[in-house]
Design a protein that fits this description.
The complex is a heterodimer of chains A (about 425) and B (about 300). With about 425 residues, chain A is of the alpha/beta class. Chain A is built from nine helices and 18 strands. Chain B starts with 20 loop residues before the first strand and ends in a 7-residue tail after the last helix. The chains are: A alpha/beta (about 425), B mainly alpha (about 300). Chains A and B meet through strand 1, helix 1, strand 5 and helix 4 of A and strand 1, helix 2 and helix 6 of B.
Chain lengths: ~425, ~300
């Protein structure tokens, strides 16, 4: 029994780069002239794969005309069955949001067809159409209607919605007086009570505090587990994708590079995103990452002396060689240790100077990550240079990575990897009592 | 573009499954989804409510402010055009004469200017959620009716006052009952039609926004709002008649204050209105599909 509720067939979308002006008017006239004669869009042929490095080349080249168009999506086809929760993963700019926008009819594809069964509700943002002068109550009705609810539906669910949002006391106060947390809770509450057959959700869970995010994920889970509703879900939170989704598609540069079970796709995505390089060096000043404040020379994650490869017993030494040009400022260097599942395990940093007394020059900082802290597995490092512990001077994600080997320290002869992110040494005590 | 195939493209479906919604890259021009608009009628009323309520939030006088604007405008016109420039008003009390022109003109002008920026001002909502975009200009036209209603009460108050005082006016009572809603509908549709045409044109090229802003002010002088049509010399008469708002304002004034109702030009204005509405909806439907990419 094929119970397909969404069928996407060869969807492509092209975007024009650059500003709208007389140049785009010429293109429009050309397109219109082709369409009038029943011909295809002339710019479909010249559109390029949405790869940012290529775009950079295009701006340099002389014959700009042909390269002003890029494919945000190219020949995407997939099907979703009733009750499935489809995760859409990919780097920033891979076309995830464009796909959701097309599916929710905010914009239209350039070619291809989409077929849908049932009522569609899309949640690309919480609180769309909230008017700051109106009260919480008025905004609930307005927002509900914008999301496609009928008035009596909202009236029926009103108490539940208010209850879920936890804003009963403020419901007759203009939302401009709300704290940002209350605002988001109220906005999400409306969306949580939508009952569409197909729900499209973009990164909306990224807003709000941790407890709110848990609430959202819980609600998403209950929707997903109800079994008869279909959810399309875009997120950068890979653990959420893994736990919520029953299937996934992987977009890269606007093209579909994989579909199937979320587990392997998430791993593939993280593999591509992270780096296995444990040392990186920029001998050439002009190509090294940096700016007028800081410039990197070398970053490495190596086992301490005496170890061939890093393992749980050795820890890792992170070394950063850089030059900074700040005179009399406060400079700090911060590392984020990211696990293979995309979670930040911890953050650690050093204040290179903290009393407005920085001296420009070349520096080497070393962070020896201690032994018996991280569990075995792959990690990567995001590096941030900051000023006054407030302003980011330079940020370099996934600059280096490392893999900790497993050891059996403290575990007898058991060499199986243990679950968990950390693997501390616990000094157990044992006493015979009788 | 209308393609070679006959009927909606759902017919070419390979397997006979029933889909509730099929999204094609381009839609045939006759495919207007007007039923969708009906489905979302609740949203339209919400927008009307929002527009009306949010205007006078945090004011003490509230809707009273809607009186102040036409009252002051009329007083100013009376002072300048009647007392200083000595423009004739067909023998009618100047205050009443100007109010009878300004009240309907204001309605048309607000409808046009507000609907003409539909896409640009609502881009933040349109970019995040789908609903039939036509809801927005429709709600603007309706919420302005409330404002018109308030201003009309003001006009009607003056009208009764002068009539009881025995001013030289000749109200056509049947015309008032029958023509007022018709003229109002005509203005609403003309404002809507031309407004959505302009809003569709301004999504990509903003040039028209500048035109609307001062164009509507100039248009008031090309319409017999502050002068009687009888004052216009014969050689300019054609240009005044070309303006579909001229017969509407004239007819409005004629029914309340007396005078001949320009039936012929009113019929032409109706035709122009309907044409602008049809063209407007077609263009609007075309633009709403992917205006988000270029707005």
């Amino acid at each position: 029994m094929s119970d397909t509720v969404i069928s996407v067939e060869n969807i492509s979308k092209i975007y024009r780069l650059g500003e709208v002006g007389t140049g785009s008017l010429a293109h429009d006239v050309n397109r219109w002239w082709h369409r009038l004669r029943g011909k295809d869009d002339p710019y479909l042929k010249v559109g390029q794969v949405n790869d940012r490095t290529q775009v950079a080349k295009a701006t340099n080249s002389k014959k700009k005309n042909a390269e002003d168009w890029v494919y945000a999506l190219k020949d995407i086809s997939f099907e979703v069955k009733r009750g499935e929760v489809l995760g859409i993963i990919g780097q920033n700019g891979a076309g995830k949001s464009t796909l959701l926008k097309i599916l929710s009819r905010v914009t239209t594809q350039t070619t291809g067809h989409i077929r849908l069964k049932g009522r569609v509700a899309s949640l690309l943002e919480v609180g769309t159409g909230f008017h700051s002068e109106l009260t919480g109550r008025e905004n609930l009705y307005l927002n509900g209607a914008i999301l496609g609810m009928r008035k009596r539906e909202i009236i029926r669910k009103f108490d539940e919605i208010v209850d879920f949002s936890g804003c009963e006391r403020y419901i007759d106060t203009p939302v401009k007086r709300y704290s940002s947390g209350m605002y988001v809770r109220l906005a999400f509450a409306v969306a949580a009570f939508l009952e569409p057959e197909i729900l499209i959700v973009d990164e909306v869970l990224a807003v709000g505090d941790a407890s709110f995010q848990r609430k959202c994920l819980g609600k998403m889970k209950s929707v997903a587990e109800s079994g008869d509703r279909t959810v399309l879900f875009v997120s950068h939170n890979m653990s959420a994708v893994k736990s919520l989704c029953t299937t996934a598609i992987y977009l890269d540069n606007g093209q579909l590079t994989g579909s199937g079970a979320p587990g392997p796709l998430v791993d593939q995505y993280l593999q591509n995103k992270t780096t296995n390089q444990n040392s990186v060096e920029w001998p050439n000043e002009s190509t090294a990452p940096g700016n007028e404040s800081v410039r990197l020379h070398r970053v490495s994650a190596k086992p301490p002396t005496g170890f061939e490869i890093p393992n749980i017993d050795s820890g890792v030494d992170i070394e950063i060689l850089f030059t900074h040009f700040l005179n009399g400022a406060n400079l700090d260097v911060t590392l984020y240790i990211i696990s293979n599942s995309g979670d930040v395990v911890f953050e650690t940093g050093i204040l290179v100077s903290c009393e407005n007394d920085s001296v420009p020059g070349k520096y080497l900082v070393t962070a020896p990550l201690p032994s018996h802290l991280l569990n075995c597995g792959k990690y990567h490092i995001n590096l941030v240079f900051g000023q006054d512990q407030r302003h980011v001077l330079l940020k370099h994600d996934a600059v280096v990575g490392f893999e900790l080997e497993n050891t059996n320290t403290g575990r007898g002869r058991n060499m199986h990897p243990t679950p968990g992110v950390i693997r501390p040494m616990i000094h157990w005590r044992i006493k015979r009592k009788s | 573009m209308p393609s070679k195939e006959k009927g909606p493209a759902i017919g070419q479906e390979p397997n006979p499954e029933t889909w509730d919604l099929v999204i094609h890259p381009t839609a045939p021009w006759w495919d207007l989804h007007l039923r969708d608009v009906w489905q979302y009628r609740d949203l339209m009323w919400m927008f009307v409510r929002r527009d009306f309520v949010s205007v006078y939030k945090q004011t003490v006088l509230g809707p009273v402010w809607f009186f102040v604007q036409p009252l002051l405008t009329t007083a100013m016109f009376t002072l300048i055009f009647s007392n200083v420039a000595k423009l004739p008003t067909d023998g009618l009390p100047p205050m009443l004469f100007y109010l009878a022109g300004v009240t309907p003109w204001n309605y048309f002008a607000t409808c046009l200017t507000k609907t003409s920026s539909t896409f640009v001002t609502n881009a933040h909502i349109f970019g995040k959620v789908y609903f039939p975009r036509l809801i927005t200009p429709l709600s603007i036209v309706i919420s302005n009716l409330i404002q018109f209603g308030i201003q009309f009460l003001l006009f009607f108050g003056f009208f009764l006052f002068y009539w009881l005082k025995g001013a030289p006016m000749n109200p056509n009572w049947i015309g008032i009952v029958v023509l007022t809603p018709l003229l109002l509908g005509l203005m609403a549709l003309l404002g809507l039609g031309s407004g959505i045409i302009i809003s569709s044109l301004t999504t990509k090229y903003r040039d028209f926004t500048f035109l609307v802003a001062f164009g509507i002010q100039l248009a008031m002088y090309a319409t017999p709002v502050i002068y009687p049509a009888s004052l216009v010399p014969e050689k300019y008469r054609f240009w005044i008649d070309l303006n579909p708002m001229s017969p509407v304002i004239e007819a409005f004034r004629a029914t309340y204050l007396g005078g001949p109702i320009p039936w012929t030009s009113l019929a032409i204005a109706t035709a122009v209105t309907l044409l602008s509405l049809v063209v407007g909806i077609l263009v609007f439907k075309r633009v709403e599909r992917d205006f988000m990419d270029t707005v």
